[in-house]
Fold:
Amino acid sequence: MRDDPSPPATLSEALKALWHDARGDWNKAHTWAQEDEGRDGSWVHAYLHRKEGDRANAGYWYAKASRPMPAVAVSLETEWADIARALLERNG
Structure:
């Protein structure tokens, strides 16, 4: 599964973004996050800019997602898992 060249077609744009991020492709993840103009895409978009180290830009996207920016102590891995779990529960 890890070697698949593309995410499952049934995933939402936000989940496709997380799929690419998990494989180390920040640019493709960012592109997919931008495809989802709703709160889910904004949440993933925020996470990606936090990962990038651009907290100001991340803050903008967290606000669009109606989500607080995680404390610095919250690891990126934990946030990724939290987002993935929430999106999978909502979008199956």
Remarks:
- The first helix runs from residue 13 to 22.
- Residues 13-91 form one domain.
- The radius of gyration is 12 Å.
